């Protein structure tokens, strides 16, 4: 397991909890707008903690923190993830995991074993545009659809979210997503922010008006749609 960092306190990454965020390295996607490019492209070079270091930190923060967010990269790629989650659970923390949804069997096993309390799943684009948005020639969109359908049906707390990039998204994407994920409990549109850590810098965010247009499209079929980061 490649642990690349810890954000020691956050009120944003796990809504409703005072939490910390643990960043795992490695990903099976190469999204050009990814904010954690170094974790994706060179995870070994960014290794910062071992398992004992993370658990030692969490032990010291018992009674202060309420939750732990596991993000990446793509956390479900790590074979040691269940061991990490079991150890965190033994310390009494709620756990949220961020995933691109490409490994449904892993997500199902973690939920079945009660190792996670919430899932945030990234929806990159409409299914037909996943290749462009993920930087992968032939992403397994059926696996992504399977994960999304399972989250909507299994009873766990979940949210879907899309980082919206002006050059990569259009109203057509969100009209198709509104059909695909109709009935979703929570969906968040996240404003893109350019930085030197992005895999392919130079993209631009949408305007507030554009984001509102996309929110309105999704709101026609979903229970709760909000904008983050504007």
Q: What is the number of helices?
A: 8
Gap between N and C termini: 34 Å
Instruction: Name the CATH class.
Output: Alpha Beta
Q: How many extended strands?
A: 8
Strand content: 15-25%
User: What CATH architecture would you give?
Assistant: Alpha-Beta Barrel
The share of residues in helices is 25-40%
Write down the Rg: 17 Å
Instruction: Describe the strand arrangement of the main beta sheet, using strand numbers.
Output: 1-2-3-4-5-6-7-8
Low-confidence stretches: none
Mean pLDDT: 95
**What is the overall silhouette?**
globular
CATH fold assignment: TIM Barrel
Q: What is the ordering of alpha helices and beta strands?
A: EEHHEHEHEHHEHEHE
Q: Class by helix and strand content? A: alpha/beta
Provide the CATH superfamily. Aldolase class I
Tally of domains? 1
Structural commentary:
By secondary structure, the protein is of the alpha/beta class. 33% of the residues lie in helices and 20% in strands. Strands 1-2-3-4-5-6-7-8 form an 8-stranded mixed sheet, covered by helices on one side. Strand 7 (187-191), helix 8 (208-219) and strand 8 form a beta-alpha-beta unit.
